[in-house]
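SAMPLE LOG
Freezer: B-3
Tube label: C17
Construct: single chain, 290 aa
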Amino acid sequence: MKALHRTCLLVLFIATSAGCALTSTQKEATNRFAQASEEIGDFSSTEFSHFRSSTIDMNTTSVILYGNAKPDDLDGAFDSDQVVERVKSAQALSSYGKLLLLLVNDTQEAELKQASNNFVDSFKSVSGKQLSDSQLEGLGQLVQAIGSVVVESRKAEAVKKIVPAAANDVNTLCDLLIKDFTPSANQLATGFDITIRQLKQDTDSFLEKPGKSASDRLIAIDGRKRAQEEKDHLAQISSQAVKTLEALKKANTQLVNALKDDSISIEDIRTLGKEANTLKIAVGALSNGK
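STRUCTURE (predicted):
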């Protein structure tokens, strides 16, 4: 009799919890958005590191050719402290996506708690954020409270509270990254573009002068090739990154609404997936052979 009683209580508990879980549409919306957030955050982090390392390489070549780069300022516009701050912002977006993915999929307790800690810690470091540290801690505690018995209703509750609370800061992160990938915005992509143009000018000038040794000309030709590759890389990658981030902002708003009403269209979120996939293809195509 006791065993039957416990079984009935368990069935009642599961039935009650299921009513509060995310619908299939809400799960799809959250999963798609989360995956894209993680991917664009990881991509941005990698790309900013690429900007810095490539800038140092290109400026080194310029110095060898007696070009315009300064030997005591090889990183140019990519001061290490500045790049670290940009990478932190990108990783905050990635950690947010990872957390949402774990909340809508089968997850171990320890893994979920680690993702929660990463989300809180990374968002605390975002400049210009609207959520206070105590509010972020509160959202983290909401996830931590899910406990060892990971029930769908409690995970759904966490998603429905975290997404609208973080929405403004997610938009802020997107705006920061959009500026960094826009060559005309006087941010990171601008500095990278200037370095590329400078190396092209230095190599062209060097190759126009007669009497250079074969080894020196080879350095200049390799530098000219590098400038062309980075120019093409920046043009394609930055353009698609901006499109993806703009799509992420639209999807962010739609996700907030979809979690309130699952009858709302999630077309913007599906479009986000297409833009993110296009970005992934562009990165793969332009990275071959590097």
